[in-house]
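Continuing the series of single-chain predictions for the mutant panel. This is the parent chain; the variants come on the following pages.
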Amino acid sequence: MAITQYFCTALFVLSACFPRGCLSIQCYQCGAQDGDATLSCDIFVKAPMWRQFEVECPTSPAHLCGKTITHYEDGSEPSEVRGCAPAENAFQVPNRMGCGRDDGTDQTVFCLCGTDLCNGANRLPALPSITFSFVFVLNFLILRTFLSS
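Parent structure:
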């Protein structure tokens, strides 16, 4: 009985990390990146699926997902960048989640968020979060069944 209980507990803990590691965050990435050949955010917004834009952010230092849109005063096309952003600034002060605006010469809107794939465009919730919830509830029910017998 004790071995079954430990096995179920270990299975429950490991499946909570399903399908990938618990510590890193996944973000959508598009637009201008230093030295990277990334897909344009124009393609991102029009794409029927966003899987090819998903990246796993580094775990050290911790990261958030970010999105920046700059509207230029000269009327040229706005630029958009999505990707991983450090959770702390250069002075090791935590960056605040949410959106802000830089009303300098060009207007820039920047947003930071801390959940997987939160920096997309407006769409329905991502399927992985629904799958994770289903697996979590299923594991809870299985664990409860084994522990009560």
